[in-house]
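Anyone else keep sequences and structure tokens together like this?

Example one:
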Amino acid sequence: MASLLSIDVFNSGYKPIPGGPGWDDSTPATWPATTSALISGDRDAVLVDALLTTSEGERLAAWVQNTGKRPRAIFVTHGHGDHFFGAGPVLDAFPDAQLIACDRQVVDEARRQTTAEVMAIWNSWFAGRFSQSPAVPALTNSQKFDLEGHPHVFRTIGGADGVLATIVHVPDLRAICSGDNAYNNIHMWLRNSTPESREAWLASLDAVAALKPSTIITGHRDPDAPDDNATRVLDQSRRYIDDFDQTVARSSTPLEVIDVMLANYPAYGNRYTLFAAAVTQFPS
């Protein structure tokens, strides 16, 4: 008889970072609040994503230990460092767990994140706060994972916030752990995006919606977001991308884009994400 399944979510909260040229330092710049999701049966579990800093990894490991569950795998949804650099403390606490990804492009991007050039960028934000030799996910040999009689499906979805997006689909819960494919009440990472990449991201959201989930755990979620309702999360993610795309087309400066988007989304977290997106649309 299959066990009962549950999903619990760890939220890192916002982290201060240097704002850089053009940022108004009267408002602290932050990194978006990031999640890890623990999908559990009676004994075993799958952890989805593993945060960024060493202290986050330590807090995450302690949180998982307190659940009494044993993660058999840590699944990395995509290759951005803020979703796997923090895996070390969790792997230390659970040495039998495997750090995995379901698509070669995710593994390749994760490896690229550990190169000197990209690590220098991460260090400009978080120097001394994360591992300089982070573990990199290995490519899993199966797109399906059985957790105490419940199937989990690893799916490649398509383009999202600059890299390939994959998700964990848990049909028995009608739930999806979306990584950065969708956002929940946080300004979306549209830095260096183009009309074509934004269109591809919208197609990825449609692919997730076609699975008809009722719950979506997003990779970036405001701690005060009202819920994880899939319809609301998908609708707001689509609308945000559409609004950004149309606002950029009508604007001539980053400030115009920022003003319009803040008016449309006054309660969204992490304004620095919007700033970083807007300034890349008008290269000097």
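And example two:
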Amino acid sequence: MKITLLNGSPQPGALDTHLAQLKPALEAGGHSVTQLDLRDLTLRYCVGCWGCWVKTPGECSNRDDSHEMGRAVINADFVLWAAPLKMGFPSELFKRANDKHLPLIHPYMEVDQGEAHHLKRYPRYPRLGLLLEPEADTDSRDLQIVTDIHCRTALNFKTRLEFSLTTETPAADVARRITDPAAACLPLPKRLPTTRGVSVKPPCSLTLFNGSPRGRKGNTAIFLREIAAGFGGPSETHHLVRLNDTDKMTTAFAEAECVILGFPLYTDSMPGVVKRFIEALEPLKGRENHPPIGFVVQSGFPEGLHSRYVERYLERLAERLGCPYLGTVVKGNGEATRVMPPEMNTSLFANLQALGAGLAVEGRFDPAILAKIAHPEAFPAILGPVFRLFLRLPVAYSYFDNMLKQNGAYERRFARPFIE
């Protein structure tokens, strides 16, 4: 077997010690093992440019060591995602690397498990496992949330997650799980209902954090703008892509009266730049009088259900920080927001403004409005065949095909640059 170990620990620690025991145990069985310590690679943040889909199909157009990583991943029989948990989720370094897996799939969609998912780019994908180094306060709920999200990520990467273990599991046992070709996969998590936020004293001002890697040019900025317009009171917006301002933004969070953090769904959770900010908030744990916090998660998938798994993490994050949780705005097909004619966004913008107005008057996110924004949560099963038929039509691919043609890359749209 060809086995690739991706070590997402930002500095040597317990996870490195565990992998130092695991690697020789695998090699002793005659397996070829490649270990990539992600901290030693140059991995730039995914900026949402889609160059890997429409300019240089199959590889990041912003050249860095993600090409080496992609080659090691797609040619492996098994890939172990390994990372320490930080603020209840795998490290920012690991998330940054996971975002750079995007070139390994197509922008085109298909119906899988009754949902919209990306088409595969390669004929085969490696089996996957997850190895986590717990934090001092990690509990079973944290581990389940992380496992569910990565089961969903594996599904989108055209494979399945076989196990989710911690470094408390002996290396020999992890090696046996990796090398067992008959190992059962973890069951896909069930569809989740929306979380429920609380009511707070109506705030007089908002502090907004835009987690879009595109900054002001992304869709998330539009969502936050409309909520602030409905709120009507003073607001300030911070763009997390401005990495040099992280300390300033952490202070703004600590001093805020009410916070809304928004981002696009990236590999079934938050973008790497958002995870970086979340980790920067760790010193604020345990302090009193933290601001209430609400979230916005918008995705390119047509159904809202894809964002419900990271929503569970966000609810837990608010609890971890000691912030009253207002709830999460979930919106599928959010990518279309910035390219739609204004009249096509009338209903969405009205609902976002009503949500902001309700926060100003009632101190809460209105559940009825949240449900309207999230519609459709899922497509009825009866529409599955209709959706499949639509995805076979040229119009379903036209958005990306037009960009491919503009970039002179249309003939290479099915490229498989990393295959050996």
